[in-house]
Specification:
single chain, four-stranded mixed sheet, three-stranded mixed sheet
């Protein structure tokens, strides 16, 4: 399986660029209804991800919800590099599926680490359902598991 088939390209994905303020990040999360968002460098390199919880905990430690303070605080210090590791565009389906067990979306990068887009858990499940209904294998597998 070529995972590029499931890729939602960068042009269709909301993301933050390093140096963005807390306010900008929170507004983008709210606008798109995301619970986490990828962060890329000015050169397009995938840096990590920031979640709603990252913002919440850091705002609590700042002790301020003033717009001025949220504009001054930068996201660079709260990027989580380990929570949402990317896969390479040539990753196999097994690697993609194992990541999907742990992450709502999987960032995809090229050979240089440049962010290409994301693959959502929804896209993976939809693909599996389409393949299972067409082949009957997934449905048969689920029926065997149910009987056991």
């Amino acid at each position: 399986m070529n995972i590029a088939f499931l890729l939602k390209p960068k042009s269709q994905v909301a993301y933050l660029v390093e140096g963005s303020s807390f306010r900008q990040g929170m507004e983008k999360l709210r606008r798109y209804g995301y619970t986490a968002i990828p962060v890329i460098s000015r050169d397009g390199i995938y840096l990590g991800c920031i979640s709603e919880g990252d913002f919440l905990w850091n705002i609590m430690s700042m002790g301020s919800l003033e717009t001025h303070d949220l504009e001054q605080a930068k996201i660079d210090d709260i990027i989580s590099k380990d929570r949402t590791p990317p896969v390479h565009i040539t990753a196999n389906a097994e690697e993609l599926f194992s990541r999907a067990l742990e992450q709502n979306f999987i960032p995809v990068v090229d050979d240089r680490g440049v962010f290409m887009g994301i693959i959502t858990r929804r896209a993976i499940l939809s693909y599996c359902m389409e393949q299972g209904v067409a082949d009957g294998e997934a449905v048969a597998y689920l029926n065997v598991k149910k009987e056991a």
